[in-house]
Amino acid sequence: MPDPHPETAPPSREAPGGAARPQPPARYGFPLLATYGQRVGGFLIDIGIPGGLLAIVLIAALATRDVAVIGVVYPGAALVGLAFVLWNSGYRQGRSGQSLGKRVLGTRLVSVGSEEPVGFRRAVGRQIAHLLDGIPLGVGYLWPLWDEQRQTFADKVCSTLVVQADL
Predict the structure, then answer these.
(1) Which whole-number Å values give the CA distances from 151 to 42, 134, 157, in the listed order?
(2) Per residue in 66-86, pLDDT tens?
(3) Average pLDDT over residues 155-160
(4) Lowest CB count within 10 Å: 145, 151, 156, 157, which one?
(5) Closest listed residue to residue 155, CA positions, set 99, 116, 112, 115
(6) Spatial CA neighbour of 100 closest among 22, 54, 41, 34
């Protein structure tokens, strides 16, 4: 008599053309925390984009040696930089959990417990709270290396986690 429950292969996760699709991180009832390298890499991307562009603009303004140009460019550059930070670290990260850097590195910012994005105000508050990370000789930025939840001081104050993004 044939077996009523024959072994069946699990459904294939192949993309068109036979390429394997990336698998999402395994979930065990808790989020998979971002690595320290992912956190640092995302931060460098987030500051490198506006920082690099602003540096070029400011150096070009200084090269003119025109006080009027410098007097217009510097405040304008500061406003553009602030607008970028509010958009990237506040709006984008608060709404989706991912700044540009976090998206590239495959991480996202979530609220402890709910694992949902934190919203604009809390995301901006976390950016301001990062000042706490730098006060004790930058130890707060290194804290994720030995912290069980891999949180900076700002993450602890704001009850946030940086986790692996779902693929």
Answers:
(1) 15, 14, 10
(2) 999 999 999 999 999 999 999
(3) 97
(4) 145
(5) 112
(6) 41
> Which tokens belong to 134?
């730098």
What is residue 34's three-state secondary structure? coil
| pTM listed for this prediction | 0.77
- In order of 9, 12, 16, 166, 167, the CA distances from 19 in angstroms are 18, 11, 7, 19, 16
Structure token digits, residue 72: 């217009």
Tokens of residue 107, six digits: 């991480």
Considering Cα of 78, then 156, then 106, then 11, what sign does the dihedral take? negative
Written as one letter, the residue type at 153 is F
Separation of alpha carbons 129 and 38, rounded Å: 20
- Given a cut of 70, whether residue 40 has pLDDT beyond it is yes
Q: Is the dihedral of CA 152, 157, 158, 164 positive or negative?
A: positive
**For residues 104 and 19, what is the distance between their CA atoms, to the nearest angstrom?**
21
